[in-house]
Amino acid sequence: MTALNIFYLILGLGLIVLGIAALAEKYRVVRGGQQLPARILSCQKEGSPRKGSGGYRYTVEFNDRDGIRHTAATNDAFWVNHKKQVGQVIEIWYNPARPHLVERRSLGTELMAVFSVLLGIAAIVFLAF
User: Fold this and answer.
1) Distance from C-alpha of 106 to C-alpha of 124, rounded to nearest angstrom
2) What is the pLDDT of residues 16-27, one digit of tens each?
3) What's the CA gap between 91 and 60, in Å, rounded?
4) Distance (Å, rounded) from C-alpha 128 to C-alpha 4?
């Protein structure tokens, strides 16, 4: 096995672990949750004060199934400022057992995680051996 094969093996395993971790995190948030409409109040930068680090999150306002109004920041982050989205209604996952976690419903998150796992498998099967 050459050094390049070992590199691709490690890369493939890393991508597989990353994809599984992303799916596990998403499942942890939405398990037992309710899918609700929410209005975007703001889009703000989160993370480190260092220039260029961190991502953007939505602050959303929604009513749970009991009619109680909540305001929370979404659990996921993205790298582009979506201030044009302010005022629009999106779907979120809200779990009353974990009221501090609000997950934006996004097929892209799941697809990216699955793509990461598949890319990791491809790197191991086609490039490492």
Assistant:
1) 28
2) 999 999 888 777
3) 10
4) 7
Does the residue 61 lie in any domain?
Answer: yes
Q: Read off the tokens for 87.
A: 């005022």
Q: Domain range spanning residue 45?
A: 8-115
- CB-CB contact of 22 with 109 (8 Å): yes
- Amino acid at the residue 27: Y
| Residue 81: partners with Cβ closer than 8 Å, 6 or more residues away | 43, 45, 56
Asked if 57 and 74 count as a contact pair (C-beta separation under 8 A), the reply is: yes
Structure-block tokens of residue 107: 């097929």
Is 76 part of any domain?
Answer: yes
The predicted model scores a pTM of 0.65
The CATH number of residue 79's host domain is 2.40.50
